[in-house]
Amino acid sequence: MTPAIDAPPGEQPATRRQPPARVRTSTGLAGVLGLLVLLVVSITLSLVVGSGHVPLSDVWNGVFSPDRSVEGQLIMRELRIPRTVAGLLAGVALGLAGAVIQGVTRNPLADPGLLGINAGASAAVVFAIGWLGITAANGYIWFGFLGAAVAATLVYGVGSLGREGATPVKLALAGQATSAALIALTTAMLLKDTETYDRYRFWQVGSLTGRDAEVIAQAAPFVGIGVLLALALGPQLNALALGDDVARGLGQKVGLIRVISAVAVVLLTGAATVIAGPIAFVGLVVPHAARMLAGADYRWLLVHCLLLAPSLLLVSDVIGRLIARPGELQVGIVTAAVGAVPFVILVRRRKMAEL
């Protein structure tokens, strides 16, 4: 029988949870160094590999001393470098957003894509562009944040209905239903005219193609703020892992932690969607993979997600360039294929645990 802690009269006793196992500094640093190497390799592949051939000399010069009169170096400056930076920012944002959501809800099925937050941001941005005529990134980025916040609130409200409250499976189902509805709405808005669809259709699935410096520059500061907030939440998420009552007993302000977490997730998800569209499963798969390396200590787990998520996104993008030559497969499709199997396994484990 699992022991229970004392509770005030009239309240149900809370189940005692084991604190997250602390990771030794040497082990954590070794994992970080390994992931740094992986990230450097991923960045290199993103710059070198493409649907068209660019000589290695043009890759090097295009990064460090570009000559725009040379075709290969022009491709580097105009296409591959912005695409790689977009993948880095979007990957970092989605990986940390997924880890924070899973930590604050104690829900291993939580993810910005599965909970419809990405789709909410995407629908709001498409509405701003296609129907309000707001085509500047510094204008429609605010709609991305608004759409992410509204979708998150809606999914949590629907998933909390019923006597048992917001269970992981209910939240996942509510998120998928909301996401499907929002994706259908986004598609309908994109079909307003051919020009709108051709230009902004990547907001249906998610892609790193055609990202320009303006969009990246507008979104980058919000990603930076979200990263700082997420990393600062490490000790607090460790406390929440013990349960709300225990966290309060340790002096944590649970309500404030949830508010800061929500702000971080909205900033990260909204910015990532503005950069690359509604890319799914990165926020689901990466935290679980990071736990295999860093354990459950969120102080190390968040850092591992920070490095692992952009590597996954960049490698998925490279795969999409290679398997559909001379065309390309959108990175959102590749990440969905990568994340589908872990998602099914997690759902089955949760269902078995509830039987």
TrEMBL record:
Cell location: Cell membrane
Keyword set includes Membrane: yes
Presence of the UniProt keyword Cell membrane in the record: yes
Chief location category: membrane
Membrane topology type: Multi-pass membrane protein
Residue intervals passing through the bilayer: 26-49, 81-101, 113-134, 140-159, 171-191, 259-286, 298-323, 329-347
Top-rank taxon: Bacteria
Region described as Disordered: spans on this chain: 1-22
InterPro entries: ABC_BtuC-like, ABC_transptr_permease_BtuC
Sorted UniProt keywords: Cell membrane, Membrane, Transmembrane, Transmembrane helix, Transport
Homology family: Belongs to the binding-protein-dependent transport system permease family. FecCD subfamily.
Name by which UniProt lists this protein: Iron chelate uptake ABC transporter family permease subunit
Biological source species: Kineosporia mesophila
